[in-house]
Amino acid sequence: MSEAVGRRERKKAQTRQALADAALRLFLERGYDNVGVKDVADAADVAVTTLFKHFPSKEALFFDLDADHEAALVAAVRDRAPGRSIPAALREHILEWTGKVDEDERAAAITRLVEGTPALREYARRMWLRHETALAHAIAEEAGAPADDLTCAALARFALEAAGLVRRHPDPREAARAVFDLLEQGWTAGGPGRGGAAETAPVAAPQE
Q1: Do residues 162 and 180 make contact, with C-beta atoms less than 8 angstroms apart?
Q2: How far apart are CA 148 and CA 175, in angstroms?
Q3: CB contact at 8 A, 98 and 167
Q4: Helix (H, G, I), strand (E, B) or coil at 8
Q5: pLDDT recorded at residue 101
Q6: Whole-model pTM above 0.85?
Q7: Which helix (H) or strand (E) holds 54?
Q8: When you count CB atoms within 10 A of the terminal residue's CB, does the N or C end of the chain come out lower?
Q9: CA 167, chain centre distance (Å)
Q10: Residue 42 contacts by C-beta under 8 Å, 6 or more apart in sequence?
Q11: Residue 23: which of 40, 36, 38, 42 has the closest Cα?
């Protein structure tokens, strides 16, 4: 019985991967708006109804690694080196992600397609922010705070939003330093790095 279940699960995973691969290939070749879900189903040799059993929407076909991104964000917090702060760990994770996109020609093409397609750009933003709850819970757990702690939720949201700022900046490393220094140290009246007196209580990571 378990062997049969295992075969079914492997078959489902293979079908899902075939659909995701076909979708990405067609989107890159023709452009996202010029490809329909039937085109993808035909390319993967499955029915449209089968496609929708694996992916709820056309946009979801493009972002097949949603769960992997979330797991990597959580791992960046939970598996960080001893003594490293949570903002510093998230900064390095986002820089690593940015570097991979810039160095991989296929990843760069995917990024260009997302940035040039309003539907994908908006879906990517929503997808990225969907990871907020999982990341906030991981931060709270590491910081010894309640799961619904507001400052942990704020740090998770700001860190996720910061990824887009870092990615679009001419110098991603400098952008990441500036943004995550702000998250860790808080704002001052003179602005970051100007030595002004604290204007308000800093919005930073919970004390570990």
Answers
A1: yes
A2: 29
A3: yes
A4: helix
A5: 63
A6: no
A7: helix 48-54
A8: N
A9: 12
A10: none
A11: 40
Q: Are 63 and 124 in contact (CB under 8 A)?
A: yes
- Could you tell me if 100 and 172 are in contact, meaning their C-beta atoms sit under 8 angstroms apart? no
Q: What pLDDT does residue 124 have? A: 81
Query: What is residue 198's three-state secondary structure?
Result: strand
Cβ–Cβ under 8 Å, residues 143 and 152: yes
Render the burial of 153-169: b for 16+ CB within 10 Å, e for the rest: bbbbebbbebbeebbee
What is the reported pLDDT for 201? 42
Q: Give the architecture-level CATH label for domain 2-55.
A: Orthogonal Bundle (1.10)
Locate CATH 1.10.357.10 in the chain: 66-185
Altogether, the residues listed in the chain come to a count of 208
Domain with CATH 1.10.10.60 in the chain: 2-55
- Is 118 within 8 Å of 167 (Cβ atoms)? no
Reported CATH class of domain 66-185: mainly alpha
pLDDT in the model for residue 2: 66
Say what the pLDDT of residue 113 is. Answer: 87
Report the alpha-carbon distance of residue 90 to residue 163 in Å, rounded: 10
Alpha-carbon distances, residue 106 vs 29, 111, 112, 170 (angstroms): 12, 9, 10, 20
Ranges under pLDDT 70 in the chain: 1-5, 65-66, 101-104, 188-208
Please give the structure tokens belonging to residue 120.
């994908």
| Structural element, H or E, at residue 125 | helix 118-130
Give the per-residue pLDDT at 203.
43
Q: Given this model, what pLDDT does residue 5 score?
A: 63
Looking only at Cα atoms, what is the longest distance across the chain? Answer: 68
